[in-house]
C-alpha cells in the first residue's frame, strides 16, 4: 500500500494554456475525475480536491501560479496538511519520452523542468515520486519553450490521452499495492 497523500499536477492556469503540452500534469488529474467523485476548490494559489480513491484518501492539487512558480503553492499545501515529500507524487510533462509514454520515478533531480526545479528549491527536497508524461521533444533545445506552450497534434494528443488512462490505472495500483507493482504495470506497455 502506498503512503501518497498529495498528487500535484503541473501546468499553467487559464484557457490560453489548457490544451498545451505543458499542461499534461493537469490533464492527468482531470483524467482521474471520472473515476472518482471530487471537485476542485480554489485555495493555496491553486485548485485542490479532497479525493477518495478506493479506500485511500489523498489531496489532488493544481497550482495556478504558472509552471515556473509552482513551488510556493506546493510548499503551502504540504505545510498546511503536514505532508512530507515522500508522501507526494508530481505529474508533469516529459520531453525525454515519446508522446504516449508515462513512467513513474522516485526521487531525482529536476532534469531541466522548471516546475520541478521550483518545487525542489522551495520545499528543499527532491525525495518525491514523479509521473513523467511523455510529450516528445521538438528536436532542438532552442525550440523547447515554444513547443511546450503549443497544443499537440491529434495523433500525439490521442497517444497522450491513452497513456493517461493507463497512468490512472497504474495510480490505483500504486495506492493499493505500492510503487513496484505500479511500475511493473505502467512500464510494461
TrEMBL record:
The keyword tRNA-binding applies. It catalyses: an N-acyl-L-alpha-aminoacyl-tRNA + H2O = an N-acyl-L-amino acid + a tRNA + H(+). It is found in: Cytoplasm. The record marks 93 as: Stabilizes the basic form of H active site to accept a proton. Catalyzes the release of premature peptidyl moieties from peptidyl-tRNA molecules trapped in stalled 50S ribosomal subunits, and thus maintains levels of free tRNAs and 50S ribosomes. This is Peptidyl-tRNA hydrolase. The gene is pth. NCBIfam families: pth (TIGR00447). Pfam families: Pept_tRNA_hydro. CDD domains: PTH. TRNA binds at residues 17, 66, 68, 114. Its main location: cytoplasm. The keyword Cytoplasm applies. PROSITE patterns: PEPT_TRNA_HYDROL_1, PEPT_TRNA_HYDROL_2. Its EC number is 3.1.1.29. The active site is at 22 (proton acceptor). The lineage of its organism: Bacteria, Pseudomonadati, Pseudomonadota, Gammaproteobacteria, Cardiobacteriales. It comes from Ostreibacterium oceani. The record marks 12 as: Discriminates between blocked and unblocked aminoacyl-tRNA. Belongs to the PTH family. Keywords: Cytoplasm, Hydrolase, RNA-binding, tRNA-binding. InterPro entries: Pept_tRNA_hydro (IPR001328), Pept_tRNA_hydro_CS (IPR018171), Pept_tRNA_hydro_sf (IPR036416). One of its GO terms (biological process) is rescue of stalled ribosome. GO terms for molecular function: peptidyl-tRNA hydrolase activity; tRNA binding.
